[in-house]
Amino acid sequence: MAFLREKNGRWSPEKIAAFVVAVLPALWLLGRFLLHDLGARPITEAIHFTGEWAVRLLLLSLLISPARRILGAGKLILARRTLGVAAMAYALLHLSLYILDQKFNLFVVASEIALRFYLTIGFVALIGLIALGTTSFDAVIRRMGPRWNTLHRIVYGIAILAIIHFLLQKKLEIYEPTVMAGLLLWLFGYRLWQRLAGAAPGWIGLTALAFASALLTAAVEALWFGVKTGVDPWLVLDANWALDIEIRPAWWVLAVTLAVVGIKLVTDFRSSSGTPRQRMSVSTARG
Ligand code: HEM
User: Fold this and answer.
1) How far is the CA of 195 from the centre of ligand 1 (A)?
2) Do 28 and 155 belong together in one domain?
3) With a 6 A CB cut-off, is 185 part of the ligand 1 pocket?
4) Is 170 in the pocket of ligand 1 (CB under 6 A)?
5) Residues 163 and 182 in one domain
6) How many other C-beta atoms are found inside a 10 Å radius of the C-beta of residue 134?
7) In which region does residue 198 sit, left (phi positive, over 0), alpha (psi from -120 to 50) or beta (all else)?
8) 66 lines ligand 1 (CB under 6 A)
9) Residue 287: pLDDT above 50?
10) Tell me: the pLDDT tens digits for 59-75?
């Protein structure tokens, strides 16, 4: 099981954790299937399940770089490939289940993908995931050199397409894809900050990012309902204040990204109060 070990042969807790996160949903789906717990339309339920986990694992793989810096845990990078390849695997299972749902009529599948916009962008996202997944192995990385980094930047476009595919498919029940869109905005914001400021955001920067991502999430939701239903977007924005009725996605994005600020404050405190050796290991991870 070399894929769970570091180059020096030691077991890698990061790779093992990523592998467990990647495999558990599939085992859970298999368990629900064997227990006939997938409801009246089991294949559709399985298509939804695998699609959702493909997006979740994709976002987790994008979270690795910020998490490394915020936690001062350089070795987290070892988990990224497993998460990325797992996102591709779930998306492939997702497509296979759709083909099964269409009773293996590949002509219908192809024409549906060509004619339905949300399926077309799902297909483009899948092709992108396959390109990234198949070029994730050491030999290919070595052979591609700097072109590898250029290719792997398409992951940002894939994430956007996957979330639009999710939104379009959900029509008006867009709670989860809106939360995911908000978290993706935070992941983009973190990288933009790094690029513009030349350094990773500190806790103040992360706090600003948290509020900006939450506001943008509310804007995405308001615009989506405005475009899809013609309802006044200001009314949708206003619904964010009706906490007694429902906590809207923007609040969850704010809660999660403010929790990141808390984690950053704790790791900063620990690295400033830890032993020189500890300080050394954290600063190396931060690069
Ligand atoms: C050829 C490629 C793809 C096809 C044909 C496809 C097909 C579908 C279909 C038919 C549904 C809706 C099922 C239903 O309600 O009847 C769906 C939903 C979904 N797909 Fe895809 N998809 C593709 C690629 C992707 C990719 C690459 C991702 C993620 C990376 C993805 C994520 C999702 C998600 C999150 C949902 C919504 C699940 C839910 O409703 O909870 N799909 N897809």
Assistant:
1) 32
2) yes
3) no
4) yes
5) no
6) 11
7) left
8) no
9) no
10) 999 999 999 999 999 99
Whether residue 86 has its Cβ less than 6 Å from ligand 1: no
Report which ligand 1 atom has the smallest distance to the Cα of 87.
Answer: 30
Number of domains in the chain: 2
Atom of ligand 1 nearest to the CA of 158: 30
Which residue's structure tokens are 């890698």? 12
The model's pTM is: 0.92
Structure confidence by residue, pLDDT tens digits, 166-217? 999 887 789 999 999 999 999 999 999 999 999 999 999 999 999 999 999 9
Domain that holds residue 268: 173-287
Residues 181, 167: Cα–Cα separation, whole Å = 9
* pLDDT at residue 275 in the model: 52
Atom of ligand 1 nearest to the CA of 109: 5
120 CB contacts (<8 Å, ≥6 apart)? 113, 114
Is the domain of 146 the same as that of 199? Answer: no
Residue pair 133/84 in contact by the 8 Å Cβ criterion: yes
